[in-house]
């Protein structure tokens, strides 16, 4: 009798998973072609295919374990390892079909197909998502999950919780708070304060200012004030590694005080980046 497959046994260290190794884009393109090679953002990977008039973004990752009310039972007909099941998400089903591979330990791997431009039939999207599940499961069971090859100065090598373990951040995070790592290994939360390390296609627009010795951008969205800084991602001129500090305003929308706290946090955190 086989042992139920856990996410750790399937994927290894989550912080170093190369999610691009789970995407077989030529296969998913069918009779079409790949228009965007797979590109990693530390905790997920996305590529693009076009088949006839349908252009789609194919995404693998991230892993998660929190409660998701959008998940519903799904009858997946492909082969699965012992202890592994598949569910579907009801989130943004007008443009996206998401399948969630659930391992024996309850940790989930998210796989999705999103129509770019005018949405096509949901059945066609979801057939691709099922094919994506089959390819990812085949890679996992064959023991061919890749690892990220990060250069020494990459922010993907940084433990984000070490950035927040600093008494200078007590006020911004809230009294008595401690850093808690996200499952992916590339983000951390401490009370009202969080940090996320990722890769983006281009630097976000907006006015810049110098914080912690780095060029930074300050922005607000709802109750959050964010401060981010970037550096070139090695091997490509188009993509940049990004470090984002967020502070949440618990009493409503973000205001000047929220952003002052985020800037103070950035001034303490950014000098720690390689």
3D structure, described in words:
There is one protein chain. The chain has 274 residues and is α+β, with helices and mostly antiparallel strands. It folds into two domains: 141 residues, no CATH class; 118 residues, no CATH class. It is 19% helix and 36% strand. Strands 2-3-4-8-7-6-5 form a seven-stranded antiparallel beta sheet. The chain has a seven-stranded antiparallel beta sheet with strand order 10-11-12-16-15-14-13. The longest helix has 20 residues. The model has no long low-confidence stretch (mean pLDDT 92).
Condensed summary:
The protein is of the alpha+beta class. The protein contains six helices and 16 strands.
What labels describe this entry?
alpha+beta; 7-stranded antiparallel beta sheet; 6 helices; 19% helix; 274 residues
- The gyration radius over C-alpha positions equals 20 Å
Taking the alpha carbons of the first and last residues, their distance comes to 48 Å
The general outline is globular
Poorly predicted tracts of residues: none
Strand order of the largest sheet: 2-3-4-8-7-6-5
Helix content: 10-25%
Arithmetic mean pLDDT: 92
Q: How many domain units?
A: 2
Strand content: 35-45%
Number of strands: 16
SSE series: HEHEEEEEEEHEHHEEEEEEEH
Can you summarize the main beta sheet? Answer: 7 strands, antiparallel
Number of discrete helical segments: 6
Organism: Amycolatopsis samaneae
Protein name: Secreted protein
How would you summarize the topology of this molecule?
Elements: H1 7-11, E1 17-18, H2 25-29, E2 33-40, E3 45-51, E4 54-64, E5 71-73, E6 85-89, E7 96-102, E8 108-116, H3 122-141, E9 146-147, H4 160-164, H5 170-173, E10 180-181, E11 187-190, E12 193-200, E13 208-211, E14 214-221, E15 224-232, E16 240-248, H6 256-269
Antiparallel strand pairs: 1-9, 2-3, 3-4, 4-8, 5-6, 6-7, 7-8, 10-11, 11-12, 12-16, 13-14, 14-15, 15-16
């Amino acid at each position: 009798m086989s042992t139920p497959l856990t996410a750790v046994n399937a994927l290894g260290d989550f912080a170093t998973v190369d999610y691009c190794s789970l995407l077989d884009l030529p296969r998913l393109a069918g009779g079409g072609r790949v228009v965007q090679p797979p590109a990693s953002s530390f905790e997920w990977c996305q590529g693009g295919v076009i088949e006839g008039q349908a252009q789609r973004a194919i995404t693998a990752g991230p892993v998660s374990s929190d409660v998701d009310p959008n998940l519903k039972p799904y009858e997946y007909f492909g082969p699965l390892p012992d202890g592994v099941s598949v569910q579907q998400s009801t989130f943004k089903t007008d443009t996206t079909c998401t399948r969630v591979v659930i391992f024996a330990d309850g940790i989930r791997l998210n796989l999705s197909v999103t129509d770019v431009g005018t949405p096509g039939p949901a059945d066609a999207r979801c057939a691709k998502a099922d094919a994506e599940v089959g390819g990812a499961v085949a890679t996992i069971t064959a023991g061919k999950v890749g690892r990220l090859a990060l250069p020494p100065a990459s922010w993907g090598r940084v433990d984000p919780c070490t950035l927040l373990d600093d008494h200078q951040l007590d006020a911004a995070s809230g009294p008595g708070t401690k850093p808690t790592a996200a499952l992916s290994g590339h983000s951390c939360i401490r009370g009202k304060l969080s940090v996320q390390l990722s890769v983006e296609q281009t630097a976000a627009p907006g006015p810049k200012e110098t914080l912690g010795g780095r060029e930074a951008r300050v922005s607000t969205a709802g109750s959050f004030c964010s401060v981010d800084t970037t550096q070139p991602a090695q091997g490509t001129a188009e993509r940049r590694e990004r470090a984002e500090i967020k502070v949440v305003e618990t009493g409503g929308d973000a205001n000047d005080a929220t952003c002052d706290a985020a800037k103070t946090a950035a001034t303490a955190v950014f000098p720690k980046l390689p």
